[in-house]
Specification:
Blueprint (H helix, E strand, L loop, with lengths): L3 H20 L12 E6 L2 E2 L19 E2 L1 H11 L1 E7 L6 H9 L7 E6 L8 H9 L4 E6 L11 H12 L3 E4 L6 H10 L5 E3 L14 H11 L4 E5 L15 H15 L4 E3 L12 H12 L4 H16 L3
Helix pairs in contact: 1-9, 6-7, 7-8, 8-9
């Protein structure tokens, strides 16, 4: 994909997507006839009696009830076929709370990436308990207790168990690095690893930094590592987030070139998207960038690769 000329074309595509969605009954931002699995949403209720450990009450955008009925409306407006929930709570009991919350609609809420304390004495027992539910497809590595000393023998033991059971590992690169991902991928080549939010860098609208691009390519050399095209509004570094495709294109180009059409997976990071703009606006930008690559790439990005990675029916 070229830079200036392609940029103009993609801006046009973005406009067409948004305007056509407004002018017809086609869901805004949804590729016609192409199913979309959103692999990154959070569900929680800040008003539960027990409260939540995230988001904080000071967050005026996110501290609210975020429940299936709210996401159902998003699905109807944007043509979302199904979703994978990512647990945002560090409390073990909230894994079951989410599983119970969405059991009424297994066609839409098809999987949960849970949150368990890796490296703890309870990890194996907890993983066995939750993995009995076929919807529990893996865990997310987000917190880093111990800092630089995080990767203990107990952590390696638990990651080995995850790999042995055929479950997956989502990684949020807030407390972790691409080098950490590479280390895990080398040690467990059969463990499927998904980097969240286009590696978690801050998107500035400028050309990608050479060192970051090099690390992305290095991580992508491991065939068990995938990258989630998600959370671009959150990573924009501006609120509200820019709505012009060229602002994000340099980063998306690096990710696509490194991982190719077979190891990119769509996710929104809703409701965190609300900080930067609407769900439809973010989806339209992602679709417009990949649309010139053709229908096969769109199908892989929006559904096929997610089914393969998470082992979805």
């Amino acid at each position: 994909m070229n830079n200036s000329s392609a940029g103009n074309l993609l801006v046009l595509l973005t406009s067409v997507v948004i305007l056509s969605g407004c002018a017809t009954n086609t869901p805004q931002g949804a590729p016609d006839g192409i199913p979309i699995i959103d692999t990154h949403i959070h569900l929680y209720d800040a008003h539960r009696a027990s409260g939540v450990d995230w988001p904080p009450a000071s967050d005026k955008v996110l501290f609210r009830s975020v429940l299936p009925e709210h996401y159902d409306a998003i699905c109807r407006a944007n043509g979302i076929s199904a979703t994978v929930i990512v647990e945002a709570s560090s409390r073990v009991e909230d894994n079951q709370w989410v599983l119970d919350l969405v059991k009424h609609n297994p066609q839409r809420y098809i999987a949960l990436v849970g949150s368990l304390p890796i490296g703890s004495d309870q990890f194996s027992v907890l993983l066995e308990r939750y993995a009995k539910d076929h919807r529990y497809v893996g865990i997310r590595m987000r917190d880093r207790p111990g800092g630089e000393d995080f990767f203990t023998d107990a952590v390696w033991r638990d990651l080995a168990l995850l790999s042995k059971k055929g479950l997956v590992l989502d990684v949020l690169l807030a407390n972790f690095t691409l080098e950490d991902v590479i280390t895990i991928a080398k040690r467990f080549p059969d463990l499927k690893i998904l980097i969240n939010h286009v590696t978690g860098l801050t998107i500035t609208g400028k050309a990608a930094e050479a060192d970051w691009s090099k690390m992305v390519s290095k991580a992508a050399k491991h065939k068990n590592v995938y990258c989630k095209v998600s959370g671009i509004f959150q990573r924009s570094g501006q609120m509200p987030a820019p709505k012009e495709l060229p602002y994000y294109a340099p980063i998306l180009e690096v990710v696509y070139k490194a991982f190719g059409e077979d190891r990119i997976i769509y996710g929104s990071n809703w409701p965190v998207t609300d900080r930067g703009g609407t769900y439809t606006e973010q989806l339209a930008i992602i679709r417009a960038f990949f649309a010139p690559e053709g229908e096969r790439t769109l199908r892989k990005l929006f559904a096929v690769n997610a089914r393969k990675f998470y082992g979805l029916k």
